């Protein structure tokens, strides 16, 4: 294993709890089956990812309303109530982030799939986002993980060597794309697992 000198953190569901269920479980009065239908057929995960790649939120909303006019109110809620989908910081991960940033051996940046339109809300709400040396936001770049180009842009922008970077993400496809570029990786499930991996690798 190469000596790590840079950590690259994903944000959503690694450091920040984000879940549209916080809005729609209430909207559908606890009917999880109906909510899952909505997230599969009306506003699917892949649709939201398109906005992470820079597609305008307002246009994305109108697109879905045109397809499903009978569900207009529910569709508009997705971005009208987006802030309510932010559950808060994942505290265990934030503690680890703070330790790594304080360690003079390391540089620490972030690489996130996030709409450029909503990311300023997160910057205002979460102080720890200002700890990073830099943050690469997919919506600003108009390209998102797992496209290899966003990884290479990140490496080039911060003059990083892939083999000396350690990437932390909760999405398996994103992890595989990073690993293909010889970036070392951790597939995030919970802060305890990340801490154990860091200690096993003697990075903490």
Explain the overall architecture.
- It is a single chain.
- By secondary structure, the protein is of the alpha/beta class.
- It has 2 domains: 6-17 and 88-200, HAD superfamily/HAD-like (Rossmann fold, 3-Layer(aba) Sandwich); 18-86, no CATH class.
- 48% of the residues lie in helices and 14% in strands.
- The strands form 2 sheets. The protein has a 5-stranded parallel sheet, sandwiched between helices. Strands 2-3 form a two-stranded antiparallel sheet.
In brief, what are we looking at here?
This protein has 204 residues and is α/β, with parallel strands linked by helices. It has helices at 21-27, 32-42, 45-52, 57-67, 72-80, 91-102, 119-125, 138-141, 148-157, 172-180, 191-200, and strands at 6-9, 16-18, 86-89, 107-112, 135-137, 165-169, 184-187. Helix 4 (57-67) packs antiparallel against helix 5 (72-80) and helix 6 (91-102) packs parallel to helix 11 (191-200).
Sketch the topology as an H/E string, one letter per element.
EEHHHHHEHEHEHHEHEH
Instruction: Quote the average pLDDT.
Output: 96
Largest β sheet strand count, sense and barrel closure: 5 strands, parallel
- In percent, how much strand structure appears in the residues? 5-15%
Strand element count = 7
| Shape annotation | globular
Evaluate the radius of gyration: 18 Å
Second-tier CATH architecture of the largest domain: 3-Layer(aba) Sandwich
**What's the arrangement of strands in the largest beta sheet?**
5-4-1-6-7
Number of individual domains: 2
Distance between the termini: 15 Å
Q: Low-confidence spans: pLDDT under 50, at least 5 residues?
A: none
Question: What is the number of helices?
Answer: 11
Structural category is: alpha/beta
The CATH class of the largest domain: Alpha Beta
**Name given to the CATH homologous superfamily of the largest domain:** HAD superfamily/HAD-like
CATH topology of the largest domain: Rossmann fold
Which range best describes the helical content: under 10%, 10-25%, 25-40%, 40-55%, 55-70% or over 70%? 40-55%
């Amino acid at each position: 294993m190469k000596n790590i000198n840079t950590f690259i953190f994903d944000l959503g569901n690694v450091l920040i709890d984000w879940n549209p269920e916080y809005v729609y479980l209430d909207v559908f009065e606890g009917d999880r089956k109906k909510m899952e239908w909505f997230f599969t057929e009306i506003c699917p995960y892949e649709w939201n990812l398109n906005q992470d790649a820079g597609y305008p939120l307002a246009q994305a909303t109108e697109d879905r309303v045109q397809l499903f006019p009978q569900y207009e109110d529910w569709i508009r809620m997705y971005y009208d109530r987006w802030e309510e989908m932010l559950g808060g910081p994942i505290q265990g991960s934030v503690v680890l982030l703070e330790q790594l940033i304080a360690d003079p051996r390391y540089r620490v940046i972030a690489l996130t799939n996030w709409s450029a339109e909503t990311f300023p809300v997160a910057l205002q709400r979460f102080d720890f986002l200002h700890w990073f040396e830099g943050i690469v936001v997919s919506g600003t770049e108009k390209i998102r993980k797992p496209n290899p180009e966003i990884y290479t842009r990140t490496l080039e922008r911060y003059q990083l060597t892939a083999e000396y970077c350690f990437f932390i993400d909760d999405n398996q496809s994103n992890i595989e794309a990073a690993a293909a570029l010889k970036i070392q990786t951790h597939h995030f499930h919970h802060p305890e697992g990340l801490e154990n991996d860091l200690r096993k690798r003697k990075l903490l």
